């Protein structure tokens, strides 16, 4: 069994492909019934998720705290990120001891700060490399090789253990989202929001919760780029996973 959290599709696609390769299922943790999770007979138990501020998303950490993975299962995690992962997998392993862990560099879907993000061209290069990386990881997991192979970056411990909690406490506010008159009222943002933080009112999205996962699904899936966050996202490249081939974009 592989459990995933995914905002714009990267981790979902990876979970589904690995699951198909090793002969198991991929399950979205959003809406999963904890009481119906029984892993005693599972050969593999995996987790895939994006990295938010050098850690696993808080919603994934909370999910992991509620389940019990048997020692007999081959437990693993695969995280996706645009640059580095910090000590996210080590941190996650404190909740569920992992036997292996991997990272896959994917296009940046976070155009909300002043850092340099991917263009369409650089995203295609990353996807080409990610395709090769995923094939490599699938074989490693199928063989149950115990290793950790992820790019942590500098100051990894500080970023994961000190900065990530600040992100979860202070930077997941929905107040920074805003929508322009270009909005066509399609409701896709409401349907894609895993936090159920959006409601269409009078034909436009309204953020009805103070906090969300800041997964940027609403911003990246919007077909007319009417949703922005803060002052940096307007006019910048939007991305959600459509496949590993550039022909999909």
From TrEMBL:
Coiled coil start-end: 120-147
Record keyword Glycoprotein present: no
Names of the cofactor(s): [4Fe-4S] cluster
Presence of the UniProt keyword Phosphoprotein in the record: no
Source species, domain of life: Bacteria
MF term (GO), any: metal ion binding
Pfam family, one: Flavodoxin_5
InterPro entries: 4Fe4S_Fe-S-bd (IPR017896), 4Fe4S_Fe_S_CS (IPR017900), EFR1-like (IPR047964), Flavodoxin_dom (IPR026816), Flavoprotein-like_sf (IPR029039), PSI_iron-sulfur_center (IPR050157)
Gene3D superfamilies for the chain: 3.30.70.20, 3.40.50.360
Sorted UniProt keywords: 4Fe-4S, Coiled coil, Iron, Iron-sulfur, Metal-binding
The 4Fe-4S ferredoxin-type domain, residue ranges: 173-203, 204-232
Function: Ferredoxins are iron-sulfur proteins that transfer electrons in a wide variety of metabolic reactions.
Name used for this protein in its record: Ferredoxin
Species of provenance: Dorea formicigenerans
């Amino acid at each position: 069994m592989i459990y995933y959290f995914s905002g714009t599709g990267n981790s979902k696609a990876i979970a589904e492909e690995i699951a198909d390769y090793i002969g198991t299922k991929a399950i979205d943790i959003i809406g999963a019934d904890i009481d119906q999770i029984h892993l005693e007979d599972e050969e593999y138990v995996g987790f895939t998720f994006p990295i938010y501020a050098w850690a696993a998303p808080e919603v994934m950490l909370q999910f992991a705290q509620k389940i019990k993975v048997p020692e007999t299962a081959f437990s693993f995690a695969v995280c996706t990120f645009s640059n580095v992962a910090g000590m996210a997998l080590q941190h996650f392993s404190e909740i569920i001891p992992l036997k292996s862990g991997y990272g896959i560099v994917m296009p940046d879907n976070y155009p909300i700060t002043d850092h340099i993000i991917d263009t369409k061209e650089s995203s295609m290069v990353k996807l080409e490399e990610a395709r090769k990386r995923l094939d490599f990881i699938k074989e490693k997991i199928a063989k149950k090789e115990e290793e950790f192979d992820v790019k942590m970056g500098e100051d990894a411990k500080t970023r994961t253990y000190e900065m990530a909690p600040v992100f979860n406490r202070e930077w997941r506010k929905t107040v920074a989202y805003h929508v322009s008159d270009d909005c066509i009222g399609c409701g896709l943002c409401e349907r894609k929001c895993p936090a159920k933080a959006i409601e269409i009112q009078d034909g436009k999205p309204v953020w009805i919760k103070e906090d969300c996962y800041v997964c940027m699904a609403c911003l990246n899936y919007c077909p007319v780029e009417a949703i922005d966050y803060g002052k940096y996202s307007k006019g910048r490249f939007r991305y959600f996973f459509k496949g590993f081939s550039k022909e999909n974009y």
